[in-house]
Amino acid sequence: MRQRPVSDVPTLVRVALVFLLVSQAVFAAMQARPTATAQALQQAPPLSVLRASSLGDPIPFAQAVTLYLQAFDNQPGISIPFLDLDYGKVQSWLTRILELDPAGQYPLLMAAQVYGQVSDEAKQRQMVEFVESQFYADPDKRWPWLAHAAIMARHRLHDLPLALRYAKALHDRAIGPKVPSWARQMEIFLLEDLGEYESAKVMLGGLLHSGAVTDPHEIHFLIQRLEQIEAAEKSSSASKRRLP
Amino acid sequence: MSKVLAIAQFTLLEALRTRLLWLVLAMLALLGLGSLFVQHVAITETIRLQTGFLAASARMGAVFILCLHVASSMVREFNDKGVDLLLSLDLPRSGYFFGKLLGFAGLALIMAALTSLALAWLAPLPGAALWGLSLACELMLMGALTLFCVITFVQIMPAVSFALGFYLLARSIAAVKLMSGSQLLNPNAWTTKLTGWLVDGLSVVLPDLARFTQTGWLVNAHEGFSALGFVTLQTGVYGLLLVLAGLYDLYRKNL
User: Fold this and answer.
1) What is the DSSP track for A62-130?
2) A104 and B216: CB-CB below 8 Å?
3) In angstroms, rounded to a whole number, what is the distance separating the alpha carbons of residues A56 and A51?
4) Nearest CB to B172 within list A52, A59, A106
5) pLDDT tens-digit series, residues B9-52
6) Do B44 and A105 count as a contact with CB atoms less than 8 A apart?
7) Least CB-CB distance to A109: which of B38, B44, B210?
8) pLDDT tens digit string along B187-242?
């Protein structure tokens, strides 16, 4: 249907429309950016409630919950240090996401590579234990995260027996054809005198070579993590050299 | 039969003339852009998340658009006295009903094909095909339900509200049933028993739509087309029930 020309609209209406549109844009721009607070993260609801809320399609719902949890991060602009988060609540969400979407790997990456990277040993330990407990549910798919946890246990927690326990679990349980042999022999390079950076580099190389990691965002993220570890090691060795 | 086919053809033609398919394409394009945002903010499994978002939102969007179209098209026909005119011809009420149903079913097929094509560039083809066939069945059921509702209520708002409420309930009834049978509840309390009966009662009169059009078919390893057996059987049984309910109401209606 052809419309009448714009000139048929009264001038007052046209001017007021433009004025109010600009006013709305100015008003919205003046508002403070939304911020996430550690207290805002509540305990995850029971699985049955989440299942009912997913309207019979739990995978996209689990993905939406993952992105919600990820908003409580340390990105510039909505910064809250992970240390402020209640890890009991974080773990409850990670568990629920895996229950809704058992084939998803995202929560395990977050546990091993995001929440496990804080400088609080108790929280690091909680995350590696979470990864270990979830590994047994699907060892042939979840092995990369236990391998990460083994390196964390060796170099962050300085708990060699724990790291070796994870290596043994990898050897005994991750026996699928897609699990590379180096992952099943992690014990060897945990016992070698490699630093965290070297170990992480070897592992990333192994993951890329075996095709276990193909997602460009994940590769970028893991390389970033590697650079952070390298920078931390360099600054730590430089401060040691400055000491008398 | 030719009259039934003519009504079906004109029902489809109306959808084309009211630019319904352009609306579906615009929805898919917008959701595609939204899925790119989701892919951008994900750290890992980016394609998996993108596919999940696009599939779930496109499914709900398709159901919403189809229900609104069926309701508005039928209400317009009632208000314009098109139904009265058609029924004054040598055409039984069932002929008119089946013509409209056939037209809306054709529309559901086209919408499902467009939606699954939009997903085919993200997901493996067998998974996308299974998902698309299941979506077609889901849309046909929802189209038939809205047709029944609009014959009963003759107004858009109650018909669409009922259809969408039904859809949400049918999609979540399996999970609600699990909740009502939780072992944490006191099994001897009368409220627990009453809720249990109510949910059990609802679950037997609702189709189990939670087993239709699963995102897992697109993002996880393909498990074959065995799931389609339940979907087609449920669509056949419930679709027939809705047809009979719609016919029952149409025959009783004073025009």
Assistant:
1) HHHHHHHHHTSS--TTS---GGGS-HHHHHHHHHHHHHH-TT--HHHHIIIIIGGGSS-HHHHHHHHHH
2) no
3) 7
4) A52
5) 999 999 999 999 999 999 999 999 999 999 998 888 899 999 99
6) yes
7) B44
8) 777 887 888 888 888 888 999 999 999 999 999 877 778 889 999 999 999 999 99
